[in-house]
Amino acid sequence: MKNVIVSPSILLCDYLHLEKELEKIKEVGCDWIHLDVMDGHFVPNISFGNLFFERLFSKIDFVKDVHIMVTEPMKFVKQFAKAGADYLTFHYEACKDDKEVAEVIKEIHKNKMKAGLSIKPGTPVEKVFPFLTDLDLVLIMSVEPGMGGQKFIPETLDKISALINEMVEERSNALISVDGGINDITGKDCLNIGADVLVAGNYLFSASDFKEAYKNLLK
Ligand code: DX5
Ligand code: ZN
Q1: Distance (Å, rounded) from C-alpha 194 to C-alpha 62?
Q2: Is the CB of 65 within 6 Å of ligand 1?
Q3: 11 lines ligand 1 (CB under 6 A)
Q4: CB-side neighbour CA atoms (13 Å) of 28
Q5: Is the pLDDT confidence value at 141 over 80?
Q6: What is the CATH number of the domain that holds 142?
Q7: Is 179 a catalytic residue?
Q8: Interatomic CA distance for residues 127 and 52, integer angstroms
Q9: Atom of ligand 1 nearest to the CA of 183
Q10: d(CA 178, CA 58)
């Protein structure tokens, strides 16, 4: 059985009690955290940005899995490196062509972070294939990016299967992460197919028992 990573998204957590929310993650033995950056342009909402994370990251000890839903991702690479991101995942659709995608990946690595590439539900998975050997993570969006608490799109599972086949061919070691509408059922479906990382926000933070919900994701 391969190692499963849960990356809790704090987008829908209780900000008034952020410290307690972060403790819940630590208490269950989880060491990843997923941060959603929205610019109000690539997606309709604005969430939080690099300065917020810079303050937060200096105080917490997690693998910082930062997902930037922004246009012109290149502009933000250095800022998130400075903020302390470990993984920086940007969107394929935010780049004008494949050349730009390759350049952003290179810049992320130059700034000593791991590089992730994400696709929206409407983008064919084949678009990430040319980059598989350079990437550390592929983030398959299973909802339209822009907000938490949406319903998982079942077609995502076919994308994961196609991605795995190609990764075997290409001998890529990138992690496959799935983001949006993950719960005990949809999460299991993704893991059964071969996903490595489950990003879960609403399911974990709206649960009356965080520990129980976390355990259910791993079962
Ligand atoms: C959506 C974000 C997700 C989201 C998680 O744009 O990328 O990370 O917060 O989704 P839920 O709340 O469905 O787990
Ligand atoms: Zn996300």
Answers
A1: 24
A2: no
A3: yes
A4: 23
A5: yes
A6: 3.20.20.70
A7: yes
A8: 32
A9: 14
A10: 27
* Total number of domains in the chain: 1
User: DSSP secondary-structure letter at 164?
Assistant: H
Whole domain around residue 88: which residue ranges?
5-218
Residue 1: pLDDT band by 50, 70, 90 thresholds? low
d(CA 117, CA 104): 10
Q: What is the pTM of this model?
A: 0.97
At 119 the three-state DSSP class reads strand
Predicted local confidence at residue 219, as pLDDT? 86
Instruction: Give, using CA atoms, the residue closest to atom 6 of ligand 1.
Output: 145
Q: Which atom of ligand 1 is closest in space to residue 144's alpha carbon?
A: 6
Cα 167 to ligand 2 centroid, rounded to whole Å: 22
Query: How large is the average pLDDT for residues 57-76?
Result: 96
Ligand 1 pocket test, pick from 179, 202, 216 with the greatest ligand atom count within 8 Å of Cβ, gives 179
